[in-house]
Structure formats: C-alpha cells, structure tokens
Design goal:
The model is unreliable at 1-7 (pLDDT under 50). 74% of the residues lie in helices and 0% in strands. The protein has 320 residues and is mainly α. The longest helix is centred in the C-terminal third of the chain and has 25 residues, at 287-311.
Amino acid sequence: MMERPDLESEDSDPYRDAACRAEALWKIDPGCGLEVVRVLSKKGSVTAMIYLALAYRLGRGVPVDRQQAVAWYRKAEDKGSLDALYYLGGFYWEQGDRSQARNVLKRGQEQGGRKCAGLLRQLEAQENEEKGGPLVRAALATRKMEASRGFGELQALAKGGLTSAMLYLAEAYHLGKGTHPDRALAEHWYEQAYREGSRATKMQAARQLGWFHKQAGDYRKAYDAFVCGADLGDVLCFRALAAMSRDGLGCKKDPGQARLFLEQAAESGNVFIDRDLAYLMMSGRWGWRARARGLFLLLRTAARAGCLGCRNPRDVRLTR
C-alpha cells in the first residue's frame, strides 16, 4: 500500500486533492494511478512529485530506482516543498548516508520545517549514542576472555546512561553471559533502553523484548512489546505481530489482521515480509484472485531477493 505523505507545506499546491485521489486510484490500479501522478507532476504538483518519488523509492508500480526517487524529491524541493526535504533526508538516512541526510534536513530546518527539525534531532541523538560504541565493543570483546570484567564494563556503561550498552546488558542477563541469568533484570534493562533510547534504540529494544517474552511463552507481553515497536515503524515487529495474529498467540487468531500487519510493513521492501504476505494470500482464505496475486508476489519477491543479494548482501531489505 502506498503511504500518503504527512504533508506539512503543500497547502498551496493547486493539484493536491487530485494527487491524493490519484494515490487512492494507485491502490486499485497501480499503472493507471501512477500515470495520473506523472501527469500531475509534470504540471508542477509537488504533492504528486512526492508520491512519484515514493513509488520509485519502494518499487510500487515501477522498478526500484534510487536516482529517480532522489530526482523527484529534488524537483519538489526546487518548488519550495519542505516535505520533499523531510522525505529525502529520511531516504538518505535509510540508505546509510548520514552526511547527506544531515545536510538535507538542516536545509529544511533552516526554512522552518518542523518535521525536518524533528528528524534531524533523532539522527543527532543516534549519532551521539553511538559515540559510546567502541567502548561497548571493547566490553563485548573483553567478555569473551574475561566474562566478569566485560560484564562489569557493560554494567558501568549502562548505568552511565548509554542506551546501546543497556541492550547488551539486558542480553547478558538474558543469556547468562558474565553473570547468572536473571529474567527480571533482563526485562528491566530492555525496558530502560526503550524508555531512554533514540528511536532506533527503542525499536530494537521493543523487538528484543518481544522475542524475550515470546521465547518464555508469555505471548501477551510479547504481543504488547511488538506493538510498541510497530508503533515506531519497526517492520520486523510488524512481521512478528502478523505471525502471532495468524497463529493466535497472545491475541485472537485472525488471518485478516495478520494480512493487514504485513501490508502495512510491505512498503519497506523487506523480502521476508513480502514472502510471508505472498504465502498468506496463497492460503485460499480470500479466494482464487488473492491466491493468484500471492503467487505473483512470491515469484516477484524471489527475483527481487536474488537481485538484492547479488548487489548488496547486507541490504536492510534482506533482514529477517
């Protein structure tokens, strides 16, 4: 499903309503909807330009094309769109190019973009948090040789407020690395990392806490933790929620809700989410049309996974 941008600066776009209707049409007929978006983009609609950039970014209705996505975001920026800067900054961050992301978001902030300023704060918070990364890695390396000493270093870093260390400390208590296993303290440090961390740390903490509870058979708590991660946009939490809804773990068994969770996360381009969605649609619960669409999605996903694996085996879209 194509996400409708949270538009901040496009009220003056004379084609805004038409572009939003074209986005709705895209859900029914991708080719037709995108053609309308293209026409409106050529007329100068910044709203349509952002939708078109998103289509190229996610490969929805057109092949994934990073250069085209950036080009359309920049065309919208040239028209004065603050939203284009927000989405372009997020795109660069997603691709791991933090320098470009910071520059784009600063331009938006300087022009009064509230969302750009907020995303820039998140980026800077994550970078500040990662400054302690070498210390955490040193503690982890020490743990392999002198477990108790490494655990002590992690404990000091976590108590000093380094949220990435809190995650490692929670894992140490969970698995008994350098200390005796302690489920209560493991849960405490996962929750502490969630409360105090950056957005990225919160997502990781919620995801790990969800698996922590699920492995222990506490499915209700696991479901609630995954919901917290999904609320922040963590696609792996959406995938976990889909599996739990499908199987009735921690919630009512509901294949329809499972499908909804997967469709919400499908925009990430994660191949395992697309694969799960394909298998669910092929189950026969929604008739032969859905089964045929599922088969097509499965074949397309397999081909895309192969291409991504050849280009970059570490691509975030190959994350389980």
